[in-house]
From TrEMBL:
Subcellular location(s) per record: Cell membrane
Name of one Pfam family that matches: 7tm_1
Organism: Macrostomum lignano
Keywords: Cell membrane, Membrane, Receptor, Transmembrane, Transmembrane helix
GO CC entries: plasma membrane
Molecular function GO labels: G protein-coupled receptor activity; peptide binding
Name of the protein described by the UniProt record: G_PROTEIN_RECEP_F1_2 domain-containing protein
Domain G-protein coupled receptors family 1 profile: 1-158
Bilayer topology: Multi-pass membrane protein
Superkingdom field: Eukaryota
Length: 174
């Protein structure tokens, strides 16, 4: 629970300048008024904030954290399964190695899919502040969708790599 609260505090702290540097304004348009959120940071502040905070703290940092956590999990499981195989002598080493190989591939796939799905959005964000002439408004919703869709991909990755997860997952859906 503390880890979850810590993650939320980390993100809220990193994004708090948006609360400070955005202003809600009314804009008239064709007999209607719209509320629009306007960024009040100057261009240099926006560049620094986007590159340092958004890219490094909210993409590269979590990516390294996830990769580190999964590498630790894979390492500890490999040590545990080796000790259990020596102790129990129930399963063959070839079967254990195959399961460990599938687990490592699954964890690497999860990290790689996270990196691939969120990287385009961050590249576009950085390019936007580097070159204001870049026109990507039409493709931005698609790029955002690719990043956000990462949230629903992990269960399918787990299904692809684990028969027991797949069985339980589809039993739950019935």
């Amino acid at each position: 629970m503390c880890i979850i609260c810590g993650i939320w505090m980390y993100v809220l702290l990193a994004l708090s300048p948006w609360l400070i540097y955005h202003d809600l304004q009314t804009v008239p348009n064709n007999n209607r008024t719209y509320l629009v959120c306007i960024n009040t940071m100057d261009m240099v502040q926006m560049k620094i904030y986007h590159i340092i905070v958004i890219f490094f703290l909210l993409y590269a940092g979590p990516l390294l954290f996830i990769a580190g956590c999964y590498a630790t999990v894979a390492y500890k499981l490999s040590r545990r399964s080796n000790r259990q195989a020596d102790f129990l002598r129930k399963s063959s080493n070839a079967h254990d190695k195959k399961q460990m190989s599938r687990l490592v591939k699954m964890l690497a796939t999860v990290v790689l899919i996270f990196a691939i799905s969120w990287l385009p959005l961050h590249i576009v964000g950085i390019l936007f502040y580097v070159s204001r002439e870049l026109k990507l408004e039409g493709s931005l919703p698609l790029i955002q969708w690719v990043g956000i869709s990462n949230c629903c991909v992990n269960p399918w990755i787990y299904c692809a790599f684990s028969q027991s997860y797949r069985d339980n997952f589809f039993n739950t859906l019935r």
